[in-house]
Please model this.
Amino acid sequence: MASDGKLGLFFEGQRMHFAVLVILLAAVWELSGLAGFGAGEFLGLSTMGWVALSVGDAVLHQVYVWLCWRAELHGQTLSRWFGPKAFTLYAVLFTALFAARPILAFALGWSNRGTLDIHPWAGWGIALVLFLPAVYLMISIRRYFSFRRAFGIDHFEPGYRSLPMVRDGIFRFSPNAMYVFGFFMLWVPAFLFQSMAAMVIAAFSHAYIWVHYHATEKPDMKRIYG
Model:
């Protein structure tokens, strides 16, 4: 029974996660028929190849976080396997998958450049407006929140669970600033390069990170903080 209870906690919210993911993937597939979506290539890889890499990295990243967070929160599995290095090892792959998201977004935008029906100057202006709060978020995380907390160290080390909520920097405007403003960075290439495909994948990624919040992070925060 105890084992069944832990299994239920491990999968809490994941039925919704994967149901909405299927819907989002179906939406991307449907929108891939838009004029210009599949046009272009970069570094010998077609735009559709960059789309597949971008979507694949997003899914892998968020599933990876779910697996690690829940394994650690409900059984200290990673700490038992890897000892004091558990969080560091988790964070290394987290960083690689997370950093790949904007890199792939820019590669996709360049591959598919000029396919979005918007004046270049308008696109560049919107890109700048989106870029600035994303940068401010990174500054705010480093100064007030820490990247360790952003990566989810409270799942690994109970000492972090007594820290107060951050209301400084960009977090003054939203307690979920990482989801609201951080993913603006993925929209930047769509407007910077006027790319239809980059815009669709930015919309997918921004919607999908909110799935992570509601299916994984929000239930975990209730377990951790009450």
User: Anything to note?
Assistant: The chain is about 70% helix and 0% strand. The chain has one domain: 2-225. The mean pLDDT is 95. The first strand starts at residue 41 and ends at 42.
